[in-house]
Amino acid sequence: MPKPGGFRIGLALAALLPASAWAQLALPSLQIGLKSTAQPTEVVGVLQILVLLTVLTLAPAILIMMTSFTRIIVILSFLRQALGTTTMPPNQLLVGLAMFLTFVVMGPTFKDLNERAVQPYLAGKITQSQALDEAQVPLRAFMLKQTRPKDIELFLKLSGEKEKVSTSEISFMKLVPAFMISELKTAFQMGFIIYLPFLVLDMVVASVLMAMGMMMLPPVVISLPFKLMLFVLVDGWQLLVGSIVRSFG
Length: 249
What we know:
Strand content: under 5%
Shape: elongated
Helix content: over 70%
Structural class: mainly alpha
Largest sheet: none
Radius of gyration: 28 Å
Oligomer: single chain
Order of helices and strands: HHHHHHHHHHHH
């Protein structure tokens, strides 16, 4: 860490520099403003930049709603609650692990999306609208594979569509929420299975403490070390991560 004396000396030396020395410094100029134009291409370029910035701001929401992130983070949260460790692992660690597992699960989908939409658009072979249409194909295939037909029918009924619609004609406005509630249902089912062995262990510890007359001692304090030991002995992280990835088929 620099000393305050050195900082004062630097300011003094900068003050002693002549005005000609400051004038020779080439500083970049930045201008922000609005002007009228007669060329439609300039307007289209500005609109494309605005659309790109909007997509970048919505990227976290898109990652959560249209990928495997929802199921993974909910299952990891259930595991932490089942263990009884309210802050361990911390939220940053769980979110980071969920993101990397999302990249593992979505790897083939992202690869297909890159080959169909991103690279042709960067090469100038297709337009922006065509790239968006091509990007929907792999995402739609992934979501349809993980979405239950009942959930799709629910949102079709809620939208007032009485006729049956093929899977290729389902809009993203109906497919994305159907996919999300399917992911939540699957995550809750897996969370129930995760809870069972730890719940049994809590009941055993509570019964032993009650039999010993130690009713004032919280059973969670005694059962927590045993739950951690059980989870480590069965190699719980490997089993859990393997089960999560395999659940996507």
